[in-house]
Amino acid sequence: MTSASPSNSGAPQRFPVVIVGAGPAGLTIGNILRAEGVDCLVLEVETREFIEQRPRAGVIEEWAVRGLQRRGLADTLLERAQLHTECEFRFAGDRFRFAYGELTGQHHFVYPQPLLVTDLVREYADVRGGEIRFGVQDIQLHDLETPRPSVSYTDAGTGERQLVSCEFVAGCDGARGVTRTVLPETTNIARHDYGIGWLALLAEAPPSSDCVLFGIHPSGFAGHMARSPEVTRYYLECPPGDDPENWSHDRVWAELQQRLGADGTPPLTEGRLIEKRVLDMHNYVVEPMTFGRLFLAGDAAHLTAPIAAKGMNLALHDAFLLGDALVAYLGKGDGSGLDGYSEACLRRVWDYQEFSQWLSEVYHGTSSGDEYRAGTTFARLRRLFTSPAAAAAFAEQYLGTAATY
Q: How far apart are CA 164 and CA 20, in angstroms?
C-alpha cells in the first residue's frame, strides 16, 4: 500500500501529472500532455544517456506509428525506419515466405527502441519544454486513494528529499519499478510461464535477410531480426535460467547456422556478439491497471514475452489512451476516458497475449520432445501456407490490426 505523505520534506512542488519512468509509454504520455499545454513531471532512475542507448525492442506496428505521427512524434522515425512487408519461416530444410503486406496493405516499421526514446525525450524536454529529472533515487508514492496524491524522491545531485503533489500518477517504470509495489492485495496478476528461455543476442553483423526469419528446428527456435544495416538481433531457444557464458561465440554461430539454415540459402553473415543475455519466457497481466489515482502503462501493467514482438506496441497503445484521457479530464472535466482506461487497454493486451501463446506453440513445438506438439506445429504451419483464410487471420494478428480497441 502507499504511505502517507512524508512530513520531513520541504515545500512540495506541484504538477497535475507525475509520470514515473522515461520509456516509450511515459515519454509518449508526457508529449501528449505537453502538446495540450498540461504541465507534467517525468521521473527516471537512470541517466538520459542510459535510456537513449539501452537495447530493447525494434518492431513497431503500423497503427502505432500512425498514432505517433498524428501526435507529431514520428518525423525522424518515418525518415529512418526500415519497412518490412514479409517474414520467412524456415523448417524441415525449406523456406516459406509470408507476404503479409500483400494480404493487408500494411507493414511493420523496424526502428530500435533506443532511437524512439531519443526522439521522444528530445521532443518532450527540448522542444515542448517538459520537466524531466534523471537519476532520481528512492521514489515513493503517497496517498494514491485520495484526490491529492504525491510522489517523493531523493535528488541524486543534492541528496535532498523532494516532494511533488499532483492529481494523477502514471506508472510507466516497467516490471521492476516502484509503481508495481504499491498495488493492493485485491489486484489480480495473471501469470504464464512458458518453461523455456531465449538467448537474446546482438551481433555486430549486417542482416542476413531482407526480412525477419523464424527458424523452427528440433534443436530449438532461432530468430533473426534486423536492427540496422550494421547490427542484427538474434534469438536462440535455450533452457530457462541458462548462463549466457555457456554460449561461446563459436557455439552461438554454429547453432544459428543450423537452426536458420535452409536449402538454397547462403550462410548467415557472422560478426562480433555485443550482447548476450538469457530471457526466461513468461507473461503477466495486471487487472485492473488502475489503483486510485495511479494508472499503469506498458510493462508495469503487462508483460508479453518477445515471442510476437508486441511489448513496445502495447506500451504505445496504453500511452495513447492514457494521455488522451488525462487531457480530456484536466482540460474539459471529462472523466470517461480515465474510467474506461483499464478495460480498453486490456482488450488489446489479452488479444496479444493469446496470439503470443499460439505463436509460441509454432516456435517451440518441434523442440519440445513431444511428438504430439510437434505434429500440431506442422499442421499449423501447413495451414498457414495453404489456407487463404488462415493466412489472412495470421496477418491481422501479426500486424495488430485484428485487436479490439
A: 12
Measure the CA–CA gap between 271 and 120, rounded to whole angstroms.
31
Q: What is the DSSP string of 169-227?
A: EEE-S-TTSGGGGG--TT-EEEEEEEEEEEEEEEEES--SSSSEEEEE-TT--EEEEE-
How far the first Cα of the chain sits from its last, in Å, is 31
What b/e sequence results for 270-298 when a residue is b if at least 16 CB atoms lie within 10 Å of its CB, and e otherwise? bbebeebebebbbbbbbbbbbbbbbbbbb
Does residue 388 have a cis bond before it (omega within 30 degrees)? no
What's the predicted TM-score (pTM) here?
Answer: 0.93
Q: How many other C-beta atoms are found inside a 10 Å radius of the C-beta of residue 359?
A: 20
Cβ–Cβ < 8 Å for 366, 374: yes
Give the pLDDT confidence of 375-405 residue by residue, as tens digits.
Answer: 999 999 999 999 999 999 999 999 998 654 4
Predicted confidence (pLDDT) per residue in 151-162, tens digit? 999 998 899 999
Phi, psi at residue 65, to the nearest 5°? -65, -40
Q: In what order do the strands lie in the sheet with 294-296?
A: 131-134, 40-44, 17-20, 168-171, 294-296, 290-291
